[in-house]
Write a structure and sequence with these properties.
The chain is mainly beta. The strands form 17 sheets. Strands 1, 4, 5, 7, 8 and 9 form a six-stranded antiparallel sheet that branches.
Length: 796
């Protein structure tokens, strides 16, 4: 585990593209300390301290290089305390790892820490494209776009090129693009900027070219006639060949105007930024298929007005439940949060046919990217959300799953572990969390992607949580940033770390998935990670494609992700690059279907084994077959069903990906519009995935194979400590505290306890509630077939 942790630090260094040779020595927890330095001639000088105790016969020196950093070769045998190595400098990347083994007189051996060495590599600057492309053009009218880019090296010279472009388009040495379109349609453009220092950046976008044009204008008000500002009015062309899309935002008087609209028939939709109102299709329709068509056939302005209904008209219901520990005792400082499902997933889920919508809230997040809530990455526990204030984009926007917004409702439990919340009718995901416990979503889920949707259409009781205690082991953390692969700017995201199931034995009973929201700059930290190998997934909010961390760049496949080893260490600098989606081709049709498997697997990261048919929590992607870009994605529901919403008519390749499952064979989908009515015609596909063959008995939520009594933590302690024990079956259990004289001083557990892992806290008091003095105490776990004792020390 230590060597794999060292590997990850090497990979982080490689990603940083350092400009000079250097060496990193991991903190030594071994018998002696190894250091390294790179000489001017490129040779590596290794020197180490002499191990304490038994005298050394000789030393063996081992070396490894990326990408085979887990395979070491012996390069030297010496009786000295140093060694000189001449590694090859043409290895890509030029990164080497060393350790030394000391062979002792009595036959034993000791190992040093690992050092990482990077040889000199050329400096490469960072190039960024700062300008936003012009995405609209007209037949016969000169199109121009000035590309603006910058290098991190002020002395670098930039070269502009068109990697992909329509016929007749040119770009000059300053980055000015010119083109006179001769026909309507959608064209793909990719601009590449190369630096004389080696850096490179690119920008891919679409240009929608229209012919003779018209104008649509109007006002958006509420039902009383009050104007509503910051409402996005979006037009979707019903043409199957060129489904153009246009949009504009209302001003302070609720007015908007969209000009240069290609002649044709459109559907219109009003999406309010202010969360007090419901979105609406024209004319008063709640779905696209019922929207009144709008014809643009000449230069006369077409008036299209909207009257939006208030969300205050939505029925409100009570959701209630409890938050308990594994011994069914209330957790008094626990919090519960309910988030609108599309807000939480950044994706629609099947059946979200209520105010929370069958869309994905990505437009909301795109607007919120520039004015997002500045928050700490560890996540605070906010107060109760008792009102539904409007979202003002001039103010901060809280996108956290446990934050305070019109999409998230949070409350604290009472002294009995009970809670109650008033929620508008809709679809929600719920989670509970408390200090000293792992965060869980409803129905014992640790994985956000597999979180059950709770339909609130009446009062919903018994939404209960049983939280697992944070293990008293050396836990670590992973931190880094989520970054736009083009602009290099931070992207607000939900970041998940998946603990991979081992093939061999694993006595740690812990969740498989851990989550954190980034801050407004895309930075994140995931804490309380038990020892194990992890892969990290970013689910960016807005029109971005989810991506796993990989040293080779952004990837949608978990099998291509780079593993991060955690064993009480902190791994920083895990930068995940995310790619924008093909937003310019959005529409109002969709792809629907199911993801199934015939391979037995676990139902959720904390569930029992079952032979599931529908696979929940799968990421399903729709890739546009023309551009090769991801146009949208969905997440499967409990039964494996999914929806990829807001797509334009076209041909798409559909694939599914889920951690610890094999990749699916792509399926072709062709969603469209009805040629007569303009109604959306969804395309349906079915996908099958198989679970990766691993030792499922070691799944993180599996029942313990044997009785386990852990050492209390912390130890020594003051004023309280935690004792963990595991039971392979449900039975009568007693957990008793004794003093040095063998006298019973406190009984912590006495009764029937369910199988699984449990935690009990002792506050250092006896059965009468009196505080005991400092000293050694013993705790004994006893069942019908097992007895074990351990000692602990209380210090004041």
């Amino acid at each position: 585990m230590v060597r794999r942790g060292a590997l990850m630090l090497v990979l982080l260094v490689v990603c940083g593209l350092a400009a000079s040779s250097f060496a990193i020595a991991q903190p030594s927890i071994f018998g002696f300390s190894l250091n390294a330095s790179v000489r001017s001639d490129g040779k590596v000088l290794l020197n180490w301290t002499k191990p304490a105790g038994d005298s050394v016969r000789y030393y063996l020196v081992y070396r490894s290089s990326l990408p085979t950093a887990l395979s070491y070769t012996r390069i030297d045998s010496t009786t000295k305390n140093e060694s000189l190595d001449s590694p090859a400098s043409n290895v890509i990347p030029p990164v080497y790892m060393y350790y030394v083994e000391a062979r002792m007189n009595r036959g034993s051996s000791m190992k040093s820490n690992i050092v990482t060495v990077m040889l000199n590599i050329p400096r490469v600057d960072v190039v960024r494209i700062l300008s936003q492309p012009v995405t609209n053009g007209r037949v016969g009218v000169l199109y121009s776009y000035q590309v603006k880019a910058a290098s991190s090296d002020s002395t670098a010279r930039l070269k502009y090129e068109l990697s992909v472009h329509p016929s007749g388009m040119t770009i000059d040495s300053t980055g000015l693009i010119k083109w006179t379109p001769d026909r309507k349609g959608i064209s793909t453009v990719q601009v590449s900027v190369t630096s004389s220092k080696g850096g490179r950046a690119s920008q891919l976008y679409l240009i929608t070219v229209t012919g003779p044009s018209g104008t649509i204008a109007g006002t958006v008000t509420d039902t009383t006639g009050k104007p509503i500002a910051k409402v996005t009015v979006r037009l979707y062309g019903r043409s199957l060949l060129t489904p153009f899309e246009y949009d504009a935002m209302t001003d302070a008087l609720g007015k908007y105007s969209i000009s240069k609209i290609d002649f044709g028939t459109y559907s219109a939709r009003a999406v309010p930024s202010n969360g007090d109102y419901l979105e609406q299709w024209y004319d008063g329709a709640t779905t696209a298929d019922k929207a009144k068509p709008i014809d643009v056939k000449d230069t006369v302005v077409v008036s299209v007005n909207f009257k939006l209904k208030s969300k205050a008209t939505i029925p409100v219901f009570t959701v209630s439940g409890t938050v308990l520990d594994s011994l069914k005792k209330p957790i008094k400082d626990a919090w519960v949060s309910f988030a609108v499902s599309s807000f939480g997933f950044n994706s629609s889920r099947p059946g979200d046919n209520d105010w929370s919508g069958d869309d994905d809230d990505r437009d909301l997040f795109d607007q919120g990217q520039m004015k997002s809530f500045a928050l700490g990455v560890t996540g605070a526990m906010p107060g109760v959300v008792s009102t539904m204030p409007g979202l003002d984009l001039n103010q901060t926007f809280d996108f956290r799953l446990d934050g305070s917004s019109i999409y998230v409702f949070t409350t604290k439990v009472d002294s009995l572990g009970k809670y109650s919340l008033k929620l508008p009718q809709g679809s929600y995901i719920a989670q509970a969390y408390a200090s000293g416990y792992y965060r869980l979503f409803y129905n014992n889920r640790s994985d956000l992607l597999s979180a059950d949707i709770i339909k609130v259409q009446a009062d919903v009781p018994n939404i209960n949580f049983v939280l697992k205690p944070v293990l008293p082991v050396a836990y670590g953390k992973i931190s880094g940033s989520v970054v736009d692969s083009t602009s290099r700017g931070g992207v607000i995201s939900r970041v998940l770390a998946f603990r991979l199931r081992p093939i061999g034995k694993d006595t740690i009973i812990a969740p498989q998935s851990y989550m954190a929201d980034t801050d407004s700059l895309g930075a994140y930290t995931i804490v309380n990670l038990p020892p194990g190998d992890y892969i990290v997934l970013a689910v960016p909010l807005g029109h971005y494609v989810p991506a796993f961390y990989s040293v080779l760049g952004s990837t949608r496949r978990w099998t291509d992700a780079t593993k991060i080893s955690i064993n009480g260490n902190s791994v920083a600098g895990i930068t995940i690059y995310v790619v924008p989606m093909l937003k310019n081709s959005t529409g109002y049709t969709s792809i629907r279907g199911n993801v199934t498997s015939s391979t037995p697997t676990s139902h959720g990261s904390m569930g029992k084994l079952s032979s599931a048919v529908g696979i929940e929590g799968s990421m399903v992607y729709a890739v546009d077959n023309t551009s090769g870009q991801v146009a949208g994605y969905g997440i499967t529901n409990t039964d494996g069903s999914f929806t990829i919403a807001e797509l334009a008519p076209g041909s798409y390749s559909v694939t599914a990906d889920k951690v610890e499952y094999t990749a699916t064979t792509p399926a072709t989908a062709t969603p469209t519009y009805d040629a007569v009515t303009g109604a959306a015609v969804a395309s349906t596909v079915s996908l099958n995935i198989d679970a990766v063959v691993t030792d499922v008995s070691q799944e993180s939520g599996a029942v313990p194979e044997s009785y386990i009594l852990e050492q209390n933590y912390p130890n020594p302690f003051n004023p309280s400590t935690q004792i963990l024990f595991s039971l392979p079956k449900t039975e009568k259990v007693s957990l008793v505290i004794y003093n040095l004289l063998g006298q019973k001083v406190a009984t912590l557990v006495d009764g029937l306890i369910e199988q699984g892992t449990h935690a009990v806290t002792w506050n250092g008091r006896d059965a009468r509630g009196f505080q005991l003095s400092s000293g050694v105490y013993f705790y004994t776990l006893k069942t019908t077939s097992f007895v074990a004792s351990k000692k602990m020390l209380m210090l004041k």
